[in-house]
Design brief:
Layout lengths: L1 H22 L24 E7 L6 H14 L3 E7 L2 H13 L6 E5 H9 L7 H7 L8 H5 L2 E2 L2 E2 L2 E2 L1 E10 H6 L9 H13 L14 H11 L17 H15 L11 H7 L5 E5 L3 H7 L5 E4 L10 E4 L1 E5 L7 H16 L10 E2 L8 H4 L13 E2 L7 H7 L1 H9 L5 H24 L5
Parallel strand pairs: 1-2, 1-3, 10-13
Antiparallel strand pairs: 3-11, 4-5, 6-11, 7-8, 7-9, 7-10, 7-12
Length: about 450
Amino acid sequence: MARTISRRDFLALGALAGAGTVLSACGSPTPQVALGPALGDGYDGPPVTIEYWNGFTGGDGPAMRQLVEDFNNSQELITVRMNVVQWAQYYQRVIAAVHAGQGPDVGAMHVEQLATQAARQAISPLDDVVAEFGLSQDEYPAQVWEAGIYNGHRYGIPFDVHSLGSYTNLDLVEQAGLTATAATGEEFESNLQAMLDAGVATPFWMPNRWPAHLIFLSLLWQFGGEPYAADGSAATFDSDAGVQALTWMAEQVGKGFSPGNVAQDSQYTAFKNGEGAVTWDGIWQINDLASTAPDLRWSLAPLPTIGTEPAVWANSHHLVMFRTRRPDDDRLAATKTFVKYLVDNSDSWSAAGMIPARSAARQSPEFTGSPQAALSDAIGTMRFLPPIAAVGEVQVQTLETAVSNAVLGRDDPRSALRAAADQATAIMEGNLRKFERGEAA
């Protein structure tokens, strides 16, 4: 399924590929960007074409194509040319293009990449642009707004939020005589047991790979833990909270709620085929379910609170402006005009299955009538990774393997997490030295 693969590949392959690409460009001059002329009432310069890159290749693609088409049709002076690249290749290709002096003007970027690409001098600080737009924290959830800041400067303008959610097969739940969605761990286990007793085999499939580490992070936060030190100096996911989280995940197999050895994405495929009653996956699956499983009766709700406090892993697409060696006032003004248009019309982005980041957009009929509106009340519980450069690479090499080994029963949760945290800390210490010396620029 294209959408799932794109997110998965971004978190895994994309982060690793990006490192080598930018490091290989260290000898090039540092790209710079100018603020350009004030936006005023709109762009009034000569006709100009600007380049916009993103990775919206799945069910979110049509919504973005429509937004770009609407912008191009709304005025006659700016033409936005969009280049869509699978997230697996996006960060490698766009950053290489920037450092070769051939990068795009504007792009979409996962918030987990902002710190990395800011440290590698690929994207520009947007403090002045945000001030010019008149945007403020009051218009966004606090944690979404703050996630765009790295080293005291804003590098991204929040566009959306996308998190894990709990998908339920209504037919299988009703088969067990259940009607309510579980809100707590006790209710969730009781519901799963009731489904087992009613003949629903393995009602909750627990993956050992994607999105297993996202489930782990959600539960870690629920139990009061943090995955990394805020200053990027150490991994802390091997805390007691982490052990509790990973132990719970492994227990789902031991209790018979989940089959063993659930391969990557298999839990979602099983849900679409009516084999699993509940699955925890990203809201980016909404459009895929509508198009590929039209007869499936399902609902979406926030994850139940298994730990002591509600929390769920989330990510966010932010709009960024790339650095350039050859600043041009007309292109910069046109770029800002397009970015402002996307911000002002982000309610239309609800059609992508995403949650608009701007509060006003979440009041629109486009969002309130969408399936993901069921997660509105959970926005305050959505958590993001701290803004640590290259943290995605660290997770791929350490945390994801530890989670997989524990869920598969190859290692006990505490030992798996301790070994992975030691390895992650060593990598992070090296990253700190590397970025402090400027080797990643």
